[in-house]
Design a protein that fits this description.
Elements: H1 2-15, H2 19-24, H3 30-54, H4 57-83, H5 85-101, H6 107-120, H7 178-181, H8 190-200, H9 202-245
InterPro entries: Tetraspanin/Peripherin, Tetraspanin_animals, Tetraspanin_EC2_sf
Organism: Pachyramphus minor
Membrane topology: Multi-pass membrane protein
Length: 249
C-alpha cells in the first residue's frame, strides 16, 4: 500500500510539471526517484504477499532473491562508499552541480535544494560561487537575467525575528569576496557540511541502516522457512498418495 502511494504521488508530481522542464531535469527529478522506488518496492512486496498467501514457491523465491540482492547492494554501496570516499565525494559533487544547473527548471528540485541549504547552513556545492553554473545566476557580463551574480534566498543569513522572507537577499553576492559575502549569506559549500554532518551522526546513521537491514534479513529468513515448510508438505502429500495406492497399505 505504501509503495502504491509513493508511485501515485510521484506520477502526480510529474504530471503537474511542464513537459519541457520535466525532460530537461529527468536525471535529478525527485518524482522519478519516488516512482522507481515505489514500483520496485511494490513488485518485491507483491511477490512476498501473494507468495505467502498462495504458498507459491516461485513467488517466494523471487521475493527472497530480490531482498537478498537489495541487501547486498546496500552493503556493497556502504563498503565502497567508505573505501572510495574520494570518488563518492566526487559523485555527490556531480549530483549537486547537476541539481544547481536545473534549479529553476523543477519546482520539487528547487524546494529540495532550498531545504538542504537552510538545514545545513550552506550555499552551493563547494562554495556559493558554484551558483554561477546556473543560467539565471551566471555571473558573466553576457547574462541578461536580473538574478545575475546572485544566489538563492535559501543561502541568506536570516534573523530569528524576521517574519517576511526577503527573496532578493542574495542579489549580487557572487561579486563579493568571501569575507564580505559572509556577512549576508552562507559561504561554505554543502558538500563539506554534509560530510561533517555524516561524521557527527555516525551512530544515528548506523542505527537507521540497521533498522532498514533487519526487516530485510527477517523477510529473507521467513521466506526460506516458509519455502521449506511448503516443500515438506508436498513431500508428505506425495508420500501419502503413494502409500494409498499401495494394495498392501
Amino acid at each position: 500500500v505504501i509503495s502504491m502511494v509513493m508511485v501515485a504521488v510521484g506520477v502526480y508530481a510529474r504530471l503537474l510539471k511542464h513537459a519541457e522542464a520535466a525532460m530537461a531535469c529527468l536525471a535529478v527529478d525527485p518524482a522519478i526517484l519516488l516512482i522507481v522506488v515505489g514500483i520496485l518496492t511494490f513488485l518485491i512486496t507483491f511477490c512476498g504477499c501473494v507468495g505467502s498467501l498462495r504458498e507459491n514457491i516461485c513467488l517466494l523465491k523471487t521475493f527472497s532473491v530480490c531482498l537478498t540482492v537489495v541487501f547486498l547492494l546496500q552493503l556493497a554501496a556502504g563498503v565502497l562508499g567508505f573505501i572510495f570516499s574520494d570518488r563518492a565525494r566526487g559523485k555527490v559533487s556531480e549530483i549537486i552541480n547537476g541539481a544547481i544547473v536545473h534549479y529553476r527548471d523543477d519546482l520539487d528540485l528547487q524546494n529540495l535544494i532550498d531545504f538542504g541549504q537552510k538545514e545545513f547552513s550552506c550555499c552551493g556545492g563547494v562554495s556559493y560561487k558554484d551558483w554561477s553554473q546556473n543560467m539565471y545566476f551566471n555571473c558573466t557580463a553576457a547574462n541578461p537575467s536580473r538574478e545575475r551574480c546572485s544566489v538563492p534566498f535559501s543561502c541568506c543569513l536570516h534573523d530569528a525575528n524576521q517574519t517576511v522572507v526577503n527573496t532578493m537577499c542574495g542579489h549580487g553576492m557572487q561579486d563579493k569576496g568571501y569575507l564580505e559575502a559572509s556577512a549576508f549569506i552562507y559561504t561554505n559549500g554543502c558538500i563539506d557540511k554534509l560530510v561533517n554532518w555524516i561524521h557527527s551522526n555516525l551512530f544515528l546513521l548506523g542505527g537507521i541502516t540497521l533498522g532498514l537491514a533487519l526487516p530485510q534479513l527477517v523477510g529473507i529468513v521467513l521466506a526460506q522457512l516458509l519455502i521449506n515448510q511448503i516443500r515438506d508438505q508436498i513431500k508428505l502429500q506425495l508420500y501419502n498418495q503413494q502409500h494409498r495406492a499401495d494394495p498392501w497399505y
